[in-house]
Amino acid sequence: MERKLEIQKVTFTSVMAALAVVFGIINKYVPGLNLEMPQGGSIFGFPMIPLIFIGLILGVRFGVIGGMIYGLTSLILDGGLYHWASFFTDYLIAFGVLGVAGFFKKGLYDWKVMILAVFTAGFLRYLSHAIGGAIIFAEFAPEGMNPWFYSFIIYNAPYMLTSTVITAGISFMLLPVMRRLAIDHLLVQPVINNDL
Fold it and tell me: What is the dotted CATH code of the domain comprising 2-23+42-184?
């Protein structure tokens, strides 16, 4: 039984990471949804949604693994790196940290905790992108502007805030469906009392 549950968890993680990849492709190629910053960074962070739910349902370990799988796949689909360190700050760490949603497993039953999970994970992703941007892409800062200010405030804050807010809103709407899916497939135990 334990082996079967592990296989279900691996399968769920793989399917959700693949769904994140599909959402990323939609973000990139569908007119109106393909709004990006000049050096990358989607306004509509749809790939974050399934990655957050991996953590909420299966915990930190699977959440981080799912995020890293998405990050690596996204790197391959994006077709290249500006700098070797952006492998970590823009892909591996940036999406791996979304797995911290697993620290908020009660979020599967309480929408307020789920929103906190999304904003915590989104903030950590923002930090990864912003630190990488300040160090690696300092040359893109306007003449005379501090690269840390440019990366943290001007470049990464607007799209990451928008992306995180959209992720939180859609995740809120999907929460009952994802909870039911997780319970029906025995990935989590049902909680009778929602007053956690």
Answer: 1.10.1760.20
